[in-house]
């Protein structure tokens, strides 16, 4: 894009401009409780040296374990995240298909490792419907007195990719994405496609001037990076009978992890689902 015309709409971009120049992965951390201390129950569960996986788990056994876990998670009230985390940790430690488990270093989620070394994150760190509202009222506050700027303050590439991994339990996040897409189009950007953050689509994305992704984020441990937590972001791909064999190699390589998190509204209540998350790898 060579030039941006000055329009009233542009006032919404003022405080955004520094953020949109870089990848806005920080959105994944909104409401993550990063200031919380690690729960004592999770203390001491972080391994100091790499771990050799203790066994294997078949696709059928993996799916059965995930189905049982999802059923359990959906019995939790959701009213007290700390209490839910402790109940989840107790559940994981009672099931032999998990060789290790604990609370993430920031206290924001529970992590576990299957006996084959593959990680599972249980996310309970983003309140349905609340995070995006905070963004709109804070970072996107109109500042009409700061419109005098050069075009260098905005990304030069003409494409904008605005993505949302979250389900119907996060209505406000979907509204934010719709608004940002509208603003980008008004500013002269071409919206990049595909904008559905699936594993396959994420592997082919490039060339965007603006890249915005609202999603879940969490940390955990695998056997390859046992002394250092891994960070992962929630995709729209479910862990199911079709995808387990398809993506098994990427899980084994550390590129993907399994994760359970609130997703869609079922009978008016946020229901947990299990999707794949992508790591920095």
Question: In words, what does this structure look like?
Answer:
The chain has 281 residues and is α/β, with parallel strands linked by helices. The chain is 25% helix and 23% strand. The chain is built from 7 helices and 10 strands. The chain has helices at residues 17-20, 59-73, 81-93, 131-138, 171-186, 199-202, 243-252, and strands spanning 98-103, 109-114, 119-123, 159-164, 190-191, 210-214, 217-220, 230-238, 256-266, 269-279. The strands form 2 sheets. A 7-stranded mixed beta sheet has the order 1-2-3-9-10-8-7. It has a 3-stranded parallel beta sheet with strand order 5-4-6, covered by helices on one side. Helix 4 (131-138) packs parallel to helix 5 (171-186). The radius of gyration is 20 Å and the shape is globular. Mean pLDDT is 77; it is low at 1-50 and 136-149.
Mind sketching the topology for me?
Layout: H1 17-20, H2 59-73, H3 81-93, E1 98-103, E2 109-114, E3 119-123, H4 131-138, E4 159-164, H5 171-186, E5 190-191, H6 199-202, E6 210-214, E7 217-220, E8 230-238, H7 243-252, E9 256-266, E10 269-279
Parallel strand pairs: 3-9, 4-5, 4-6
Antiparallel strand pairs: 1-2, 2-3, 7-8, 8-10, 9-10
Helix pairs in contact: 4-5
Which descriptors apply to this entry?
281 residues; alpha/beta; 7-stranded mixed sheet; 3-stranded parallel sheet; 7 helices; 23% strand; disordered N terminus
Strand proportion, as a percent range, falls in 15-25%
What does the radius of gyration come to? 20 Å
Whole-Å distance between the termini? 31 Å
Secondary structure class reads alpha/beta
